[in-house]
Amino acid sequence: MPIQIRTHPDEGTCNLSSTDRFGNLAAVTFTQGSDFGAQVTVDGLGLTLGHGMSRFNPRPGHPNSPGPGKRPLHNMCPSAVLRDGKPVLAVGATGGVRIPSALYDVLTQFVLHGASLYGAIAAPRAFCTGTLEVTPETSWPIADADYLRQIGFKVQTADNAVASAVSFNPKTGECHGAMR
After folding, report:
1. Domain limits for position 32
2. Active-site positions?
3. pTM
């Protein structure tokens, strides 16, 4: 009987955000990609190769074409936030191309608007790659989505990336974690 691998909606990406009682923070994101990476395992090592080459553009001459010393574009961007030189937040996400937009939204809420960790993670998110297509979550304010439509954007609601984060308060030593 052949091995059957069921595809999962997370597309093979995993993020771990962690802190300890001393305020050491880490956010680590790794991926094999959908369908179990390259589906190639190194003999004798049990190491399954990732799908990183799929992120290159196969057309020669394109800025993201394979070549010596080049690295493909990717969307993983685990981040840490410092305040007065001390770590206070580590955040990362799963969700493929939606990761950068989700982390931008979480970081904007936490850093710019002063939201708590829970507020930053809970806030509605929107996905956009710089085109006229915008994909807000269903919890996005309807008036904002209507405004985007009025000025020419194509708006269609959908799920966003799943962000996970931890925070540390250097004054109190409190640690918190949230994921959505």
Report:
1. 13-125+160-179
2. 13
3. 0.81
